[in-house]
């Protein structure tokens, strides 16, 4: 994203794109977090007023800091009074987030010269102490193709545009840039803070693999809404990229016609895995298992096993255990011979065959076994995963401890606000 021309700013003017990521300190110089976004109120008349900062503190929690608690905003630091509300920030209907909602928005120039895209927003502090949006750094659209023409970037007074409150298509370039490097769970947390329409806009701009990972971290209502809004071919591609058990959970939440259409458009092998999982009750081993654990034959070496465990698409819980089977190696496999724990493999020479170090005492479960039995086995034997087999001892999949935990927690656990206390921070009312 382009930034405004490099020139000295008056001390009271701050560009938000530059402010994002700035460290926030208390009066003693201790860092309490970093600026994530700016909250503004867009009014029918007059310049929009900034009311606070969204600050990311420990554990990726985003909290609201009223601008009345901010004593200084400089290029490299924001200083607060030290009073920080540690409750998780929740955007109100009357509030707008600058980075999440204003940047990339298309506005109309009042002089009749066309439309432009907002690339940055300038805040200025008035004598009253209020911070107002006064300037916009924009890039003009071409009249013929709608594409951006290089060299037509300029600063305009906020009163010289219309459309700040929305109504035009909005891109996601600026917000996506702030999500770069975040874990899927953190991106999901950002999406939950956005208005419904904006959430769909941003989600649709994520690539298939990234969106698949994020959907696995969202609650039922949000992920159903996102998948339902996607083009059916794109939605099928995203489901292909998801873990089979998570894809099955999502498909089961969709209307039957939509679910059937998506299954028909998915890759045949991926769709078959999902259909198999849908046949089981969601609170049984069959409903919780993934059909893609780490599976190798007994003649495979330790080096081969470690290479498979390093795959980025394998969760830590599943990477800790290699399931050793007779061919075929695709689930349903041949007979399960035993498991090899990653910790044991790390203590053996690379050429050692897995068949010589099998743990045959790990109890396999049947697909119809209830979640209570899985929980007891995982806890009793300190395991991260359990093999799921059919009556003939063939491996059907594996249940990991994180999948069991996910189903034991309340349905809305991802949206619940943690009960957090900190003597160094004083709770204040939001706003």
From TrEMBL:
CBS domain location: 357-416
Gene3D superfamilies for this protein: CBS-domain, MgtE N-terminal domain-like
Origin: domain of life: Bacteria
Family annotation (CDD domains): CBS_pair_Mg_transporter
GO cellular component: membrane
PANTHER family cross-referenced by the UniProt entry: MAGNESIUM TRANSPORTER MGTE
Designated name of the protein: Mg/Co/Ni transporter MgtE
Organism: Georgenia muralis
Source lineage: Bacteria, Bacillati, Actinomycetota, Actinomycetes, Micrococcales
């Amino acid at each position: 994203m382009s930034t405004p021309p490099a020139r000295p700013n008056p001390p009271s003017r701050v560009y938000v794109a530059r402010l994002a990521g700035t460290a926030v300190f208390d009066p003693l110089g201790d860092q309490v977090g970093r600026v994530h976004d700016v909250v503004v109120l867009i009014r029918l008349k007059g310049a929009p007023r900034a009311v606070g900062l969204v600050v990311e503190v420990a554990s990726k929690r985003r909290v609201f800091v009223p601008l009345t608690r901010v004593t200084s905003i400089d290029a490299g630091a924001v200083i607060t009074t030290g009073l920080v509300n540690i409750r998780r920030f929740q955007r109100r209907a009357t509030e707008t987030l600058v980075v999440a909602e204003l940047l990339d928005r298309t506005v109309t120039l009042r002089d009749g010269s066309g439309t432009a895209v907002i690339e940055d927003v300038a805040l200025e502090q008035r004598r009253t102490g209020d911070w107002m949006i006064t300037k916009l750094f924009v890039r003009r659209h071409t009249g013929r193709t709608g594409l951006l023409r290089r060299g037509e970037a300029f600063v305009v007074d906020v009163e010289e545009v219309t459309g700040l409150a929305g109504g035009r298509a909005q891109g996601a370039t600026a917000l996506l840039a702030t999500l770069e490097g975040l874990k899927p769970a953190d991106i999901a947390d950002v999406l939950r803070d956005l208005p419904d329409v904006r959430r769909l806009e941003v989600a649709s701009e994520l690539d298939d693999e990234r969106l698949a990972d994020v959907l696995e971290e969202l609650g039922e209502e949000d992920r159903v809404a996102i998948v339902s809004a996607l083009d059916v071919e794109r939605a099928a591609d995203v489901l292909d990229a998801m873990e089979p058990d998570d894809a099955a959970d999502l498909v089961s939440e969709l209307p039957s016609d939509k679910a059937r259409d998506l299954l028909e458009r998915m890759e045949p092998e991926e769709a078959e895995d999902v259909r198999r999982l849908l046949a089981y009750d969601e609170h049984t081993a069959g409903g919780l298992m993934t059909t893609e654990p780490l599976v190798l034959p007994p003649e495979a070496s330790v080096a081969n096993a470690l290479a498979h465990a390093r795959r980025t698409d394998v969760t830590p819980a599943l990477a800790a255990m290699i399931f050793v089977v007779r061919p075929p190696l695709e689930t349903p496999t041949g007979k399960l011979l035993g498991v090899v724990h990653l910790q044991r493999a790390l203590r053996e020479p690379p050429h050692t065959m897995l068949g010589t170090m099998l743990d045959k005492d790990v109890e396999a479960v049947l697909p119809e076994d209830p979640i209570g039995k899985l929980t007891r086995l995982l806890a009793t034997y300190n395991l991260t995963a359990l093999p799921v087999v059919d009556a003939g001892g063939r491996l059907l999949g594996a249940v990991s401890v994180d999948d069991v935990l996910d189903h034991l927690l309340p349905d809305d656990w991802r949206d619940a606000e943690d009960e957090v206390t900190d003597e160094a921070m004083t709770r204040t009312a939001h706003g």
